[in-house]
Design goal:
Elements: H1 8-13, E1 39-41, E2 48-50, H2 51-60
Length: about 80
């Protein structure tokens, strides 16, 4: 039996709480690492990525080399 792969964007956005509106924090509601940062399985060679990095890439495209993706609010699960 084969498993149907759910696209990363669909899996990702189902775990983001956007109830606060466009300008509020959007906390990650799934797995967080011991430091409180959200992580999501990407299926890539590294297995997981920070949820803030995945959010950036889904909305803006690949992160350019040497660029750091940071939280505007400094709230780890956001």
């Amino acid at each position: 039996m084969s498993r149907t792969r759910i696209p990363l964007a669909v899996r990702f956005w189902t775990h983001v709480d956007t109830s606060g509106g466009l300008f509020a924090c959007w906390p990650w509601t799934a797995y967080t690492n011991p430091h409180g940062y959200g992580e999501v399985g990407t299926g890539g060679r590294h297995g997981t990525s920070g949820s803030h990095r995945v959010a950036y890439e889904l909305t803006n495209g690949p992160i350019p080399p040497g660029v750091f993706v940071c939280h505007h609010c400094d709230n780890p699960p956001c």
